[in-house]
Task: inverse folding
């Protein structure tokens, strides 16, 4: 596979097939951790780490443990196990290195385990028959796309807090509308890459 | 046979991952609560208990667990601002129960009324009261943090809290009193 193909896969995953706004995976942290930009950046870093590592490890587990023993039907369960371990590990590292970020992320850090985008990446890698490097790039690209929209969205929400929003739309309602408009904008990237 | 294999594989994987996590939890062990230690360093260490906790460290731990940051009267606005910066939350005004009178104060013992019971000495968190049993006590005013804790135990009510008069050493910079006006 050529270098350009990897690049195309990366950009395609970040923008065209954005996990949050086009595939609608990982909406819980997208709405939950986006009220402050600092927290959103922290969450993005943690999720990027987890997604990349989880897609790498789940590829290895699938390729070298499940396939040789023809236990393909166990892949969802095995991937969940892998993701839980990676998240737990990330939580320990964040707690050690940045206690403040650990407190700000709060419940959302262990909840990366149930972020469907993480399991989604692992399973889509399998269904799209990605090889080792493609899996890593796909996982990293998905995480990059997640980080991009999460940080953009949190920046917008910080502005919206100060805006004069009509009272029926205050709070979560306007956030949902904003997310919808962002999704429409990202759908526009579909024409970017011509296959 | 296949199901035994499946159970064995998942069991083994769990065992390996569990061992990895066990090693990581030893490697990345966190001593105490680092955030509480950072907050404790910002507090004035008067151990006055006006926040409702028995000292600065318990209050720091409570703040780290989500208690309001505006209860430290001796620290005042400056400490609240520092804690707010550290925690990444908004600055709040000092708790209402202290707000009425947060002038710097110092305790004063009316010496002819003092019976020398030593109760105020036991209450003082910063050892700013000098005296012995059945001897008259007095306040070392430089050490006194104005925490009010000696007032309640005194059986003859001979301790008063007096505001510190502004002097060159204790100047009250009322910069925030100048109101901000929008110029059209």
Result:
């Amino acid at each position: 596979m050529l270098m350009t193909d990897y690049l195309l896969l990366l950009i395609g995953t970040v923008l065209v097939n954005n996990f949050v706004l086009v595939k609608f995976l990982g909406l819980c942290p997208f709405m939950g951790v986006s009220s402050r930009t600092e927290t959103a950046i922290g969450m993005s870093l943690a999720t990027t780490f987890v997604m990349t590592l989880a897609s790498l490890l789940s590829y290895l587990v699938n390729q070298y443990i499940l396939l040789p023993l023809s236990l393909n039907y166990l892949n969802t369960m095995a991937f969940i196990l892998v993701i839980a371990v990676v998240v737990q590990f990330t939580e320990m590292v964040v707690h050690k290195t940045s206690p403040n970020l650990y407190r700000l992320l709060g419940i959302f850090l262990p909840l990366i385990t149930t972020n469907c985008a993480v399991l989604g990446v692992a399973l889509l890698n399998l269904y799209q028959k990605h090889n080792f490097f493609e899996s890593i790039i796909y996982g990293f690209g998905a995480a990059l796309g997640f980080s991009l929209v999460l940080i953009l969205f949190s920046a917008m929400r910080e502005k919206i807090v100060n805006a004069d929003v009509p009272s029926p739309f205050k709070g979560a309602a306007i956030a949902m509308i904003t997310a919808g408009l962002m999704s429409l904008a990202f759908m526009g990237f579909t024409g970017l890459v011509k296959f | 046979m296949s199901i035994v294999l499946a159970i064995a594989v998942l069991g083994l994987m769990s065992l390996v991952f569990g061992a990895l996590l066990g090693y990581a939890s030893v490697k990345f062990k966190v001593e105490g609560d680092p955030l509480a230690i950072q907050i404790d360093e910002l507090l004035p260490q008067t151990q006055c208990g006006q926040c409702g906790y028995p000292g600065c460290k318990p209050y720091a731990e409570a703040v780290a667990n989500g208690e309001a940051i505006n209860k430290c009267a001796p620290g005042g606005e400056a400490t609240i601002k520092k804690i707010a910066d550290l925690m990444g939350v908004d600055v709040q005004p000092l708790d209402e129960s202290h707000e009425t009178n947060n002038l710097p104060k110092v305790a004063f013992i009316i010496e002819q009324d003092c019976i020398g019971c030593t109760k105020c000495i036991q209450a003082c968190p910063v050892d700013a009261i000098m005296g012995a049993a059945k001897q008259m006590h007095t306040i070392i005013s430089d050490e006194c943090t104005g925490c009010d804790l000696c007032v309640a135990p005194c059986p003859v009510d001979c301790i008063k809290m007096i505001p510190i008069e502004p002097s060159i050493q204790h100047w009250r910079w009322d910069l925030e009193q100048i109101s901000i006006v929008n110029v059209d």
Remarks:
- Helices of chain A lie at 3-16, 27-32, 37-66, 75-97, 99-105, 116-127, 132-162, 172-187.
- Chain A touches chain B at residues 36, 38-39, 61, 65-66, 69, 71, 74, 77-78, 81-82, 85, 88-89, 92-93, 95-96, 99-100, 102-104 (CB under 8 Å).
- The two ends of chain A are 15 Å apart (CA to CA).
- Residues 47-186 of chain A form one domain.
